[in-house]
Amino acid sequence: MAQGCREVGAQRMNGLDRRLLLSLPILTSALVIAWLLSPRFMDGLICVLVTVIGAARSLLRRDSWTRADDLTTLRLGFIVIVTALFLADDGRGFTWTAVVLGGAALAMDGLDGKIARTTGGTRAGALYDETVDALFILILSIGVVPLWGLWCLIPGLMYYAFHLVAAFRPAWRQHLPSSLSRRVIAATQGILLLAAGTPIAVAFPPFGGLCVAAAVVSVLYSFGRDILWLERRGAGSGD
Fold it and tell me: Could you give the CA distance from residue 172 to residue 22 in angstroms, rounded to a whole number?
């Protein structure tokens, strides 16, 4: 009887209770820190929007909540704080504090995937991770626009543009084969964009421009190759 009660308790902890006890305090703390760093109303509103876009769907999902999801939530908290630091600096590049926290968020991206593989992840958890990844790339892209121009938005918008077209183009909704180069390019996008906003890049503009150019070229290559594969596969299947 006692064993059955413990099992029920563990199942509840993996569901809504776990989200309330772990995720909400993390995100709330991140928003409080963000407000202390940049107390302007619009900046606070943007940080809340980042939190909602990143976590709302996952916090309301019915699938089980895992340790990997906890780490993804912590990563989102870091991203919210980094966003506040970007906003507080008014487009003059990224401070070293923002660079360190942003680098930590990027490093945790690989760690939560490893935890998901070793402890068991869920499809919803993978989508949560993907959502946070795409959101951070968009934030980094926007963050370097004041330094290098609107073309910096290309890496941040590609994910959303692809899924927007996929909503109307069935061929683009096919499952893509695993690709090492796709994973490497996805992982380096954040590094390149973060590097493009560092004080080093601000002091030495060719370095910043080169980082953005590498991010843009690589993401266009990656998405372009995948789109060609999807279109050819779709044509072959009659879609």
Answer: 36
Per-residue pLDDT at 206 exceeds 70: yes
> Is the pTM of the predicted complex or chain greater than 0.90?
no
Residue type for position 163: H
Q: Is the dihedral of CA 35, 40, 41, 45 positive or negative?
A: negative
* Cα–Cα distance, 123 to 219 (Å, whole number): 24
pLDDT at 236: 62
Map tokens 């619009």 to a residue: 42
Q: How far apart are CA 197 and CA 208, in angstroms?
A: 7
CA–CA distance, 127 with 72 (Å, rounded to integer): 11
Task: Return the closest-CA partner of residue 86 out of 131, 31, 144.
Answer: 144
d(CA 60, CA 27): 15
Q: Are 171 and 230 in contact (CB under 8 A)?
A: yes
Q: Is the dihedral of CA 122, 124, 130, 132 positive or negative?
A: negative
